[in-house]
Amino acid sequence: MVSQAGGVLLVETVRKTGLDQAISAALAPWRRPRAVHDPGKVVLDLALAVAMGGDCLADVGMLRAEPAVFGPVASDPTVSRLIDTLAASGDTALRAIRTARAEVRDRVWRLADRKAPDADGTVTIDLDGVLVIAHSDKQDAAPTWKRTYGHHPLMGFVDHGPGGTGEPVAALLRPGNAGSNTAFDHITAARLALAQLPKKYRRGRQSLIRTDSGGGTHELVAWLAQRGRWLSYSVGMVITDAIHSRVLKVPASAWTPAVEPDGEIRDGAWVAELTGDVLTGWPKGMRLIVRKERPHPGAQLRLTDADGMRLTCFATNTIARPIADLELRHRLRARAEDRIRAARATGLRNLPLHHTAQNWVWLEIVQIALDLLSWMPMLALTGKARLWEPRRLRLCLFTAAGQFVTTGRRRILRLARHWPWTSHITAAIDRLAQLPNPG
Asked: Which of 53, 92, 369, 423 is the most buried (most CB within 10 A)?
């Protein structure tokens, strides 16, 4: 009998995608002579433990207790020494892991037989900050803008649209007092995210960078505009006095009703494009679109609102599309909050290590875990199960108990028939078995 038998779904995802081979090859320079455990296998074991609910290095013991499912697992001292070794290597080890992830991501998207994560053939990358609270004194922990104490990583996620979840493609570890609108950090995160995409999505405007108003700086928009021939952007903007004054001058005939994802017109919300002096100083080709809506009952208006209407604004370089569609596309950036919630439930509730260099490695492990929790449903699940968040995947699938039976030189995993989600597990295993093995 084995517990966590449903974890075989993640193990098979690792094998079918070739992630084990890619990570092992990337971390081969860090393998010591006559070492028993491969560094790539140790890192993947940590990622599997995090994907299944662990939040510290010692939680790899959950895998060690079930060698029939997860294979041999290194001891806690061996795991700690490897993390220290990778941390001491700095960016070299991080770049090796990121390169391996990008290579496997290309294969996963081809296995999924999809033109791109989004239905219209584009890749949308959402950049957003995450506050991670520290309950003890750790390196670079500092007071945050929410009057908490910890770190303020900047994350990037690929939005898979309404038919899927999302993948992490960037994680920039920052002190807790890092600003929300630091242009250099946003540019660095955007570069990390774009490097994770297959090459064909880095040209021809098949990639969209989307941020909230924290990205609405001259430096970031200028950097994005320089790559305007192959990169689109949709960046939230702060309502300045100039924008506020310009909104008051927009004639009633220039306002267009906002739309909902189902195509229905949004009652009480309108959008308009601003032109003129308000664009002075911004890159050529930038469009400024503002939305006004009636606030819900009881909502308190802000100083930047006008005529009893709640105002929001964003900038984009996309042309030949109705402004209502562009505003809806930008509003769907709210799905990034779902990605952040999944990340908090998958190792990002806290940073368990003391030194910043160690927590950089931990962030890469968290991203691998989130990759697996996105790739497995993409390749093996159907229907509503493809949209399950990590907590539900663990509750329904990964925690299922099973029994290994050896017969005819074969090992068969038997699952309880009364478990409500056994059919999901067996069907997912069958779909993974049908995928070609990596070359």
From this structure: 369
pTM of full prediction above 0.85: yes
pLDDT tens figures, 216-261: 999 999 999 998 778 899 999 999 889 988 988 899 999 999 998 8
pLDDT, position 114: 54
Residues belonging to the chain: 439
Backbone φ and ψ for 175, nearest 5 degrees, come out as -60, 160
At 115 the pLDDT is 45
> How confident is the model at residue 162, as a pLDDT?
82
